[in-house]
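Support request, please re-run this one:
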Amino acid sequence: MHRLTERAPAKINLTLRVLGRRADGFHDLVSLVAFAGAGDLLHLVPGAPLGLDLTGPTALAAGPAGDNLVLRAAAGFAALVPQARLGAFVLEKRLPVAAGLGGGSADAAAALRLLARLNDLPADDPRLFAVAQDVGSDVPACLDPRARIMRGRGEVLSAPLRIAPLACVLVNCGAAVPTAPVFRGLGLPPGARLAGPDHPDGLPPDADGVLAAIRAVPNDLEPPALTIAPAIGTAKALLAGGPEAQLVRMSGSGATVFALTADCRAAAALARRVKAAEPSWWVKPTMLR
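Re-run finished. Output below.
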């Protein structure tokens, strides 16, 4: 049987409100997420012994294969699906690591989609969602990578949103920003709430309306992330200095930042300017959907 392949697109937090910290220590979030044309690729060789090989430009930064979320997702799938067919995974790692792009979560979700295909399970089989929840907070949203609003720890998802495709430039300055210290930087004790604007439940279908809605809701993790990695501010300033940039923001807990532009031509021009100024940075013009 030929190997199966799935894309693992980057998840972009266009907004990210931290509503507060729960009594169990986790944070309640609400975030508008969209998915980029950029991402990793995951292959599955059916029938081979379960394992994972890492390749690609950012494979070394991804750490040991044994700690990868792909294998954790496969183990969870095997535990819930009797006599599950498995195989050997090959992950082409293209996204920067610890970058606020949900790369590891996207890889795990791609593994679950591959295993569902191999075992003739429908995409909406509830066991897939159950495994995704157990593997990581962002994995449920990545199972069906379309724009939507996620709430709670990431397990409460809206229906997919019909929004106009958004042209953007993704920039990562190379600073690795672990998620836990960023959340600690909010300084919220259990039970505390964080003041901020209400998040809309839906979005207008047109690009201008989407842009206005995004402007009205910040990423609450930006201030603590900037204290950990000031280079995020440098990357934002470089993007904002381009005439093509309509909105510049950090994604997730950082350090990747993005600029929304009017169209893909403007995104390509802005990306060229940033790459010329900072050749060592990861810079990717793409579309969000």
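Residues 166-288 form a domain with the Alpha-Beta Plaits fold (CATH 3.30.70.890). Residues 103-118 form the longest helix (16 residues).
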